[in-house]
Design goal:
Layout: E1 16-21, H1 25-41, E2 49-54, H2 60-70, E3 75-83, H3 89-107, E4 112-119, H4 122-128, E5 129-131, E6 134-135, H5 136-153
Parallel strand pairs: 1-2, 1-3, 3-4
Antiparallel strand pairs: 5-6
The structure holds riboflavin.
Length: 157
Amino acid sequence: MPRIIEGDFSAKGKRFAIVAARFNSIFADQLVAGAIDTLTRHGAADDDLVILRCPGSFELPQAAAKAAAHLDVDAVICLGVLIRGSTPHFDYIAAEAAKGIGAVARDSSLPVAFGVITCDTLEQAVERSGSKAGNKGAEAALAALEMANLYAALGNS
Ligand code: RBF
């Protein structure tokens, strides 16, 4: 049998930073609510969650880097909502957010989850922030939780 090392989904005693952009807040707030709901239903205490709000998804990488460096947490969850408009900004911001959050993850020993939704339409944003396509904030929180427990199983080395 191969040796399998994997993380479970117990959040008891674990601490999390949720770094969330405010832009498109009617959807972004639902991602935050989904992440909090998932973590607390898996055993995290309210006191073990810290929420950082930043203006938009462009600011997420730097805020996530600060959270990873300055907060005593087991994982960082980045949440944002990008909706394509009539300017090329969407592509620039989406690329920076994805690349930047990836760079923070690589530079940090903590799991850094990517919960940024990139939508062409408002309907897609509705679907991904708590309806037909689930809640991507909840899914990002679950990924962060699994990775935090995976790294704990590895001795956080
Ligand atoms: N931030 C988002 O999180 N989602 C967006 O859909 C979004 N669209 C933007 C569109 C334009 C034209 C501009 C100028 C900014 C947008 N932002 C968006 C905000 C961006 O992430 C950042 O907060 C600001 O550019 C300030 O650095």
